[in-house]
Amino acid sequence: MKLLTLVHHPFELWNTPAWFSARLHQDFPTVEATQQSSYEGIEPYLKDAEVIVTWSLRPEQFRSATKLRWIHSPAAAVHQLMFPELINSDVVLTNAREVHGPVVAEQVLAMIFALAKCLPQAARFQQKHIWGQGPMWRGRPRPRELAGATLGLVGLGSIARAVAKHGSNLGMRVIAVRENPGKGSPEGVQQVLASSQLDELLAQSDYVVLAVPVTPATNRMMDAARLAKMKSDACLINVGRGPLVDEEALAHALREKIIGGAALDVFEAEPLPADSPLWDLENLLITPHTAGLTGRLWERHYQCVSENLRRYLQGQPLHWVVDKKQGY
Predict the structure, then answer these.
(1) pLDDT per residue as tens digits for the range 7-39
(2) What letter would DSSP give residue 222?
(3) Is-catalytic flag, 124?
(4) 155 in a domain, yes or no?
(5) Pick the catalytic residue: 270, 282, 311, 319?
């Protein structure tokens, strides 16, 4: 059985390390594991592959992979693979949502603390050699405590579930919206609302965390109308995907103090263009898609892939299967 790892990215951490395929072959001697870091001349490898580890294939490349039975994406988001040929096929798609969840949740927690304690403002005062105690207290939002604040989670995947436990341990009231509220409340979540009740969550929350996949229903879900539903001192945090937020509307909401602040790790265009107006907003904290960075990343990926490969070879159901009709 042939397994192809096909991952190419200009940022070195996102690329599969050299040991990955060698270790797969060592642990699974019947698997011929091949690793490619470029899409140039990939066609001969595609036509023989039964399993592909990749986060991106074009429809014509997918059609040439006639033996393909399973695709594993080393990303949590799979919207780039949601083309009709794959959606309507029998090829199983899995993703790495459990790899990134705990790590990204730590970033969310850091962002919440930074916004609550006005750390970006303090850093700017430090750079100017200004004792900013008075201006920080008179600013909006002013420094505040997290205990008793309401944390609103949009989505209840692996990231949000980890955030919920952290937030609850800090004494926050945690509420969430999810597509199917009947699935119940994960640990730390006091109330689960339906997706149709998003406006109700926005009106109650001091911190709103976006951690949902990009689908037709979620694309630019946070537009001007939705931002206006938030509290005037509330903060928006996006660690999902850039297209979840209308960036022009968010810039206006921050500039006009319609909301208190925001923290973004993901953007519609990455890298964020140097001329983007987002850079100059004082009540916006920007991190350059670093929420999932960890030195243990590919070891986590390996555990995920190897567990599912073992199940695949034994004819058992795979973990972390994507509902291709839903897009996540």
Answers:
(1) 999 999 999 999 999 999 999 999 999 999 999
(2) B
(3) no
(4) yes
(5) 270
Q: Which domain holds residue 146?
A: 100-286
CA dihedral 138, 139, 145, 146 (to 10 degrees): 160
Model pTM score: 0.94
In a shared domain, residues 81 and 46: yes
Quick one: DSSP state of residue 190? S
Selecting among 161, 289, 300, 301, the annotated active-site residue is 289
Q: Do 75 and 137 belong together in one domain?
A: no
Query: Are residues 158 and 144 located together in one domain of the fold?
Result: yes
What share of the chain in percent tops pLDDT 70? 100
- How far apart are alpha carbons 276 and 286 in whole angstroms? 12
241 is catalytic: yes
Amino acid 135: pLDDT: 96
pLDDT bucket at 57, cuts 50 / 70 / 90: very high
Which distant-in-sequence residues (6+ apart) come within 8 Å of 152 by Cβ? Answer: 175, 176, 177, 201, 202, 204, 205, 207, 208, 209
**Is 289 labeled as catalytic in the residue annotation?**
yes
Task: Please give the tally of structural domains in the chain.
Answer: 2
**194/266 same-domain check:** yes
Question: Same structural domain for residues 131 and 231?
Answer: yes
- For residue 68, what is the domain's CATH number? 3.40.50.720
Q: Which of 173, 241, 300, 301 is catalytic?
A: 241
